[in-house]
Every structure is written in structure tokens, then in C-alpha cells.
């Protein structure tokens, strides 16, 4: 068995870091039960892979695995998609349609981006979880189903509850067994095997000879903060394979932000951390002599504070009283910092 095979986790997942081993172990234990599972973590961390593993390792493995992206459909379309409809239920309902819950009978239904479901539909979901029954749109006949529910979210549902966007009772029905998927920045030791896996895959797909990756490139990939997680890494490796003209993936084949030549985009799921800001400033060649006052340290701290305030204000929908309470500072202090950092335009309570 080669080094690459040694770094493959279970059920096709790549990496043997300690945090991922915990995910694997919990997934194995939970899969054997019928408990509802809530997968949490940033976008691109592999929640669907875990959902599929839960299904394959369960007693329902021979049944269907049905995935629904709740964030991709409007409320009316999602209701019909989940529960089905009868002919004439609405203008375009020209025939009866089976919903995803019915299609998942005997198997598993994976509700991705569960935080996107409207309050109205959350009531119907709660009933399915509690009573295992529902009615199709436009029908009065009750349908019973037997399927396991696995849900996923890249948002903090407790914050969604506080903002009155998510039902607390539904949260507790979904959160029977929570499984947290760590961001790639917390499992940097898995980057080399992931790079090797994607390099092999895309070289084969594009009928290219398998290239080497330079030490400089690998070091840059390990140091990058990965706001888009594994999905972002996959994208960059594929791009490098396509653009490569030789047998080595050199650093110039990767985007400017990976090379430290452009600001790092902040993922919507993650406030920017001081460590990544420091790496970015160092990469851009900023030194104490190039900055004013007490130097780069003060600049980084103020930039981190500004980013944190922006994030908390966003979570609190611009309500300064709530944001101040979360930050643990006086509302007047927060208001002054908002002015100092040019963050005007938020709505005070």
C-alpha cells in the first residue's frame, strides 16, 4: 500500500488527520442507528460525503439515497419537491407527482442547506420528523413514510433561531446527533493527500501525464487559509492541471491569493482570523518600517477587529444593541467603532 492509500480515510474520504478520524468514528457509530443527523460546517467541507457514508453504512443501504438542495428552490417549488402534489393543485400541476420523501421510503433523505427552508415549510418538516406522515400539496390523503433524515447547514442554526428565521422545536428534532465537519484550515496535514488525489483524478480526466507538484507550490497550498475549503482546493488543482505545459505544477499556475499577491476572500461562513491576516500581510511584504504608528501589529489587530464587527453586525442583521451584547462591549463604544471603521449604514435598534 503506497503513501496515498495510507492517507485515504473511509468511504472514499481523503485524509487521516485527528479531527477527521473523529468524524469517521462518529459516522460509523451513528450509521448503524436510525437517529436523525445534523451535519454542520463551512461550505465545501464534505457534508454530502458524510451523508452518503451514513447511508451506505446503515441498515438502509439497499434503499434509495435522495438528496434535496433546499437552498436552490423557492418555497412553493420546494414544498412540491419534498412532498409531491396532486393534479390541479396549482396552475402547472398537470399530473400527480411523487415527492422526495416518498421517493426516499426505506432509505435516506439528505436535506442540504436546511437553514434555507421557510418558516411555513419548517412546520411540515417537523411533522414528518415527529409523525412520519404528510399530505401532498393539494391533497387531503395522509401518506406515511419510513426514511432516515440527514440534514446539513453551513449556518449556525442557534443564530438563525435568535433571528426568528428557524424554529427551535425543529432544530432539536434535527440535532439528535450533530456531526461537525472541520474547515480545511484546521486539517492542513490532509492537504498533500488531497492534492495528490485531485492531481491524479484531473490528469486522468484530461488525458494528461501525471505531473509532480513543486515544493514551493505545496508549501503555498499548505499556508493558504482556504475560505472555500476542499471544494476550493479541488478547483485550483483542476485549473493547474489544465494550464500546465510541463510535468510540474509550479506556483505560477495557482491563483494570486494562494501566492500572496492578492487579498484572501473571506468565506461567508467564516469571519477572518488574525492568523490568516498576518500571513497575507507578510506575503505582501509589509514590514514595520512600511506601516505607521506602532507597526504592523496594530494594523493587523485593527483590521481583525473591523472584520469581527462586520461579521457580528451581519449575524445580528445590523442591530447594534444585539451586536454590542454579542461582542461584550457598550453600545456607545460599538457605535464609535462603526464610525471609526467607516461601517455606517447599519440599522441601530
Outline the structure in words.
With 349 residues, the chain is an alpha/beta fold. It folds into 3 domains: 180 residues, P-loop containing nucleotide triphosphate hydrolases (Rossmann fold, 3-Layer(aba) Sandwich); 69 residues, Helicase, Ruva Protein, domain 3; 67 residues, Arc Repressor Mutant, subunit A (Orthogonal Bundle). It has a 5-stranded parallel beta sheet. Strands 4-5 form a two-stranded antiparallel sheet. A hairpin with a 6-residue loop joins strand 4 and strand 5. Helix 6 crosses helix 8. The radius of gyration is 24 Å and the shape is globular. The N terminus is likely disordered.
The helix/strand order is HHEHEHHEHEEEHHEHEHHEHHHH
| Count of discrete structural domains | 3
Beta-strand percentage range = 5-15%
Number of helices: 15
Furnish the topology, listing elements before pairings.
Blueprint: H1 3-6, H2 18-31, E1 37-40, H3 47-56, E2 65-69, H4 75-83, H5 100-103, E3 108-112, H6 119-131, E4 133-135, E5 142-144, E6 148-153, H7 157-162, H8 168-174, E7 177-180, H9 191-205, E8 212-213, H10 215-223, H11 229-243, E9 248-249, H12 274-283, H13 296-315, H14 320-327, H15 331-340
Parallel strand pairs: 1-6, 1-7, 2-3, 3-6, 8-9
Antiparallel strand pairs: 4-5
Helix pairs in contact: 2-3, 6-8, 9-11, 12-13, 13-14, 14-15
